[in-house]
């Protein structure tokens, strides 16, 4: 696996967690709303609110379990990345990778923090990825 792909995997898990949290919030709002379903002719739909809520609660429980699993995966991936980044010789390379892939900062934010242009941060990032790749290859 290449360094960039490895580090991007952390960000991907983080986005999946965010999406899962949004799904959970939406489903919780639907459960708490408790609206009655009606057919197009105005009659009440076949499912009672109790049945519908039971299904939604089961879905909510499954989503929360998935969220817990993804959160555990994120923690493990971040801990491993932090340990690997700490093995790098160059403190500046460590900072760039930590800011980008552990704290999820934008290139602009990183350039401001380090007092470099965005373009120069991109160059330094490429160097940092090379150093990180060498550490990955040793594993």
From TrEMBL:
Q: Cite the Pfam families for this sequence.
A: DUF1492 (PF07374)
Q: Tell me where on the tree of life, at the top rank, the source sits.
A: Bacteria
| Annotated InterPro entries | DUF1492
The name on file for this protein is DUF1492 domain-containing protein
């Amino acid at each position: 696996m290449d360094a960039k792909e490895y580090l991007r995997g952390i960000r991907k898990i983080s986005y999946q967690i965010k999406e899962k949290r949004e799904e959970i919030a939406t489903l919780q709002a639907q459960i708490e709303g408790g609206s009655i379903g009606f057919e197009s002719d105005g009659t009440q739909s076949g499912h009672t609110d109790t049945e519908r809520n039971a299904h939604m609660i089961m879905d909510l429980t499954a989503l929360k379990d998935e969220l817990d699993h993804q959160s555990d995966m994120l923690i493990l991936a971040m801990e491993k990345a932090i340990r690997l980044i700490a093995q790098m010789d160059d403190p500046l390379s460590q900072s760039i990778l930590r800011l980008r892939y552990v704290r999820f900062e934008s290139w602009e934010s990183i350039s401001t923090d380090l007092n470099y242009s965005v373009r120069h941060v991109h160059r330094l990032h490429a160097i940092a990825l090379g150093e990180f790749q060498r550490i990955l290859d040793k594993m």
